[in-house]
Design brief:
- This protein is of the alpha/beta class and 408 residues long.
- The chain has 14 helices and twelve strands.
- The strands form two sheets. Strands 8-9-1-10-11-2-12 form a seven-stranded mixed beta sheet, sandwiched between helices.
- The longest helix has 21 residues.
């Protein structure tokens, strides 16, 4: 018996006037998700707790049964581990964007035109930076416009603010220490120099000159955010006694998989965007299901990207494309299959919100309810009622007869 949790990043939404006050899930043609609802038990889930606007990182940590308030030190360490950086104790890691700045220093595109190619060459330039002789800079590209920065050396701290202004049309934020410690002040100073120097070194990079000629936004500055020290985490196998694999697209979720000790295969064409190769992801899942893994964590990211972009048509289309792949995944035998989202990313907000998300569990001996549609309102009438992300693994372990009795 296997346990599978499939998380469609940012899939949940709010009712929209242009959809006659339905959500994208309610408006989309999703016969396979609806079939799962019909043969399973449904509910809604608060990834952290009601009203908390969860990040993808903290929600996944919670869904896996770890306390995000203890484990989460910042997004950076997970991103770094996810792209293959061997982070060490004492390292301070950051999530970064390749972004576009104009000649005045204003950020005109935080995602550098959704850059897909050439970031490895740009990363080599950043790795040549020398800011402090006692601090090593490790910079590596992730998928698309994403990257990671690791600072390694003595006297560093993760108690610093972000450089990312979060919105276009603003200058990078000045990084400031979040306490009065000398280590924090030193780290903030180094980061500000890295941001400043990155523009100087990248604005005339051949990759960017080519992009400008092609009418694309150049990746001419990096914006660090999500500082964190490497956390200590109980391995998933020790916590649950199951061999696990994580099939994900982005460095962030791959990093959560690696830090918790899961195996993390790379999937060709998995971009983390709406252009991702869903067929290859499905093939990877089916391959994993045929091996001796007892637990499979899946994350698919495109719906979240569409939500952040406020692109309703892309979100609807992507949800429907995912639904087509679920038809194949429903052929996996002897498993409990959980389908949910890690948070809502409403088209109207273009960011995460604290709205609960739909959830369904199918598999042997589940108490099937009378819900026959998979969406935010229909699943709220299901037998699971309203749960938290931290409940998911406990419910799954019980269904798989792997939980231990509490009490006599």
């Amino acid at each position: 018996m296997k346990g599978i949790i499939m998380i469609i990043d940012g899939m949940a939404d709010r009712p929209l006037g242009e959809l006659e006050f339905r959500t994208p899930l309610e408006a989309a043609n999703i016969p396979n998700m609806d079939k799962l609802a019909k043969i399973g038990i449904c509910g809604i889930m608060d990834p952290i707790s009601p009203g908390i606007r969860a990040g993808s990182d903290t929600s996944h940590i919670s869904i896996l049964g770890y306390n995000p308030y203890e484990v989460y030190t910042g997004r950076g360490p997970f991103e770094a581990a996810g792209v293959g950086v061997n982070v060490e104790a004492g390292d301070i890691a950051f999530r970064c964007n390749f972004s576009t700045a104009d000649e005045t220093g204003t950020i005109v595109d935080r995602r550098a035109g959704r850059i897909r190619e050439g970031t490895d060459e740009i990363a080599q330039v950043i790795n040549s930076l020398k800011i402090d002789e006692d601090v090593k800079i490790i910079f590596k590209e992730s998928t698309g416009h994403r990257a990671v920065l690791v600072l390694r050396g003595e006297g560093l701290s993760d108690k610093v603010s972000d450089a990312d202004p979060k919105h276009d049309g603003k200058h990078p934020k000045k990084v400031v220490p979040l306490d009065d410690e000398a280590n924090s002040k030193k780290t903030a100073k180094i980061l500000n120099k890295i941001v400043e120097r990155s523009y100087e070194m990248l604005k005339d990079h051949p990759i960017n000159i080519k992009r400008i000629k092609e009418g694309k936004n150049p990746a001419n500055i990096i914006l660090p955010r999500g500082a964190g020290a490497v956390p200590k985490v109980q391995p998933f196998a020790d916590k649950y006694g199951m061999k696990a694999v994580c099939i994900a697209e982005t460095g962030l979720i791959k990093g959560i998989g690696r830090i918790t000790g899961m195996e993390v295969p790379d999937v060709k064409g998995a971009t983390g965007g709406v252009d991702t190769n869903l067929k290859n992801i499905t093939n990877a899942i089916m391959d994993a299901s045929s091996q001796d893994y007892e637990f499979i964590l899946i994350n698919i990211d495109g719906a979240d990207e569409a939500g952040h972009d406020g692109n309703l048509d892309e979100k609807l289309e992507f949800i429907e494309r995912v639904d087509e792949e679920i038809e194949e995944l429903m052929k996996i035998d002897d498993c409990y299959f959980i389908l949910t989202a890690d948070h809502s990313t409403p088209i109207s907000v273009m960011d995460h919100t604290g709205d609960p998300v739909p959830l369904v569990i199918s598999g042997p001996e589940v108490r099937v309810d009378d819900v026959d549609q998979f969406n935010e309102r229909a699943t709220a009438r299901g037998g699971l009622c309203r749960i938290r992300g931290s409940d998911v693994m406990s419910i799954l372990m019980d269904l798989m007869n792997k939980s231990t009795k509490f009490g006599a």
